[in-house]
Design goal:
single chain, about 120 residues, mainly alpha, 4 helices, about 0% strand, KfrA N-terminal DNA-binding domain-containing protein
Length: about 120
């Protein structure tokens, strides 16, 4: 018996918004400054815009998806800060830094959506 050759499979497409959000979250978790996070967002969007395999409609969809997810993350971070122990100054400071970085990412993503 001969086996049929396996059909060449097209590699699964990477979920670019998820990948970008993971990268942003990593930078925020490591205490990245708002400026650093904003620059990373700009670099991510620039790479998408330069990718010959992506049309600008796809890029705009990715940017919108990330922007919306970041807005949800900001609300979750604010809620977590509101629910947190205000006596724990270190946690409050870390929460404020993370929130500022998320807001910077959202702002940069919003700016990219206007470009």
């Amino acid at each position: 018996m001969s086996k049929k050759p396996a059909a060449a499979r097209k590699p699964a497409r990477v979920n670019l918004p998820k990948q970008a959000l993971t990268r942003i979250a990593d930078i925020v978790a490591r205490g990245g400054s708002p400026d650093r996070v904003g620059r990373e967002v700009q670099a991510i969007v620039a790479a998408w815009r330069d990718d010959a395999e992506l049309d600008q409609g796809e890029v705009n969809e990715h940017v919108a998806e990330c922007r919306d997810s970041l807005a949800e993350g900001i609300e979750a971070a604010r809620q977590q800060m509101d629910d947190g122990d205000s006596a724990d100054k270190a946690a409050a400071a870390q929460g404020a830094r993370s929130l500022a970085a998320l807001e910077a990412a959202h702002h940069a993503m919003s700016e990219a959506s206007r470009s």
